[in-house]
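Folding Query — how this chain folds
Tokens — whole-number codes for backbone shape
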Amino acid sequence: MMASVKIDITEDTMLVGIAAAPGIAISRSHLVNRNRMAVIERRISPEEVDPEITAFTDAVVKSKSQLLEVKAQADSKELTEHLYIIDTHLLILDDEMLIGETLGLIREELINAEGALNRVLRKLRRVFDKISDEYLRERRSDIDSIGDRLMCNLLGETRESLADVKEHVIVVAHDLSPADTVQIDRSKVVGFVTDIGGRTSHTAILARSLGIPAVVGLETITSLVPDGTPMIIDGSTGTVILNPSAETFREYLIKKQHYDYLESELIQFRSLPAQTKDGYLLALRSNIDFVEEITAAREQGAQGIGLFRTEFLFMLGEGPPSEEEQFEVYRSAVERMAPFPVTIRTLDVGGDKFVPELNLADEVNPAMGLRAIRFSLKEINLFRTQLRAILRASAFGTVRIMFPMISGVAEVRDCKVFLERERQDLISAGIACGENVAVGIMIETPAAVLIADLLAKEVDFFSVGTNDLIQYCLAIDRGNEHVAYLYEPMHPAVLQALLMICRAAKSAGIEVGMCGEMAGEDLYSLVLIALGFSDLSMNAVNISRVKRIVRQVDLLEVKQILDKLVTLATAAEVVATLEREMHQLYPQIFPETRL
């Protein structure tokens, strides 16, 4: 990561940030002011309360109007699969924790509207900063985006719209909101870089879906790069080159042509099966948070939903969603994905996953506390409501139910007892539900790995959540900057854990899949099929890329590489050997190593 210091921009000045969206862009910088506004908090008199409340509610109304306009623009650009992100921001503008608390501070603390809003935003940011799960932590960017829009409207400021960019440029900004990104004219904006942000922010997800190369998290890029600076960005590696030399320009122009050719080639793979040259058939599925993402998943060739995270149903309302509300969402997902299966994970909150309405108690060590299935088995009414909604949805298509963070057989049996009770209650009430709902568990703890053979006898499938499994297995908090470098998916201990899981699943005759970040990585996906994984679930935009690779390899050859990998002592040795072997065997897929 680039240090926060001033540097001289000489020829071929290189910066490294977070690779947010793949691709290479070559152009000049276009600096966009997205710095946070200075807010002055001041005391107000009782007579000023009503005018301040009016000013704030007017800002909320204006913000909603702006987002609806952005939504209409996106619809006209055939970007409908991304509208769920704008809908999320509209829901936040109705959220009691943001809007209600701000109004309460104006009335009760007698402070001005922008001061009250700023207090609430600081509180929400602190909450999200404590979340170690990268995907959920990046939802803070949505709070920032809405907060900045509200504050801008409160203060009567206007900002440049990226829809107005007229030249081919690389946008350089402190941050970009999803609304900014949706408005980008892709024929003009060829890439973007930002000071802040992460790979799993909604803006980064949009950039990948739209095919716009992006590098984020550069910390000081806006203070380093004058408007009009020649630059190159490589969204696959996180590299940014300022003032490229003629030689560097030629090198990246060739890389860009090669990348663009491969991208155009990927389209033909969307409707083809993910099958190796020697006949091993793999199911590639998509991870989603919202039903609206299914459109993009189907377009990318997903053969089902391997992980439907249900946490956001509980995050966006004023309280836990009712059975009917959940049922409608799950049914919609099942109908849209038919005839392929939808795997619904029960509520995974607690620890590093925050849902304000559930009032989870503070814990000394939340990652190992009352979270995921432990929370559900304690809050029985919430659990029963969700199980009933899922069972009802199963009458409309193929549903698989998945319990998170299982650490023992007793938990699985308890879950199955509750599931069967709800099924019998629904049948007794004459309410339809599916007859053969597959029951699975997420393997995320070392305990589950060690007793995988026992757990396999209790369920229909395993799904490995590598994000947590790696952290627990290696005793690493990847949200901690001091030890994040130790987060190594190819650590020998992780490989051995995955091998144990797959052997247990094979012995019991059940499916074994993965829905963690590893599943969508080019090289890692080949290791996973060699291990014996039958399905991989990932961000939809990675499906065609993984499918292209799978269709060009021989499983027997990849297994021979795996035999070498499991004998190595360090993650660095594993990665180096994997890259070298793949480059030698399949130079058309891996033309160069990354080390």
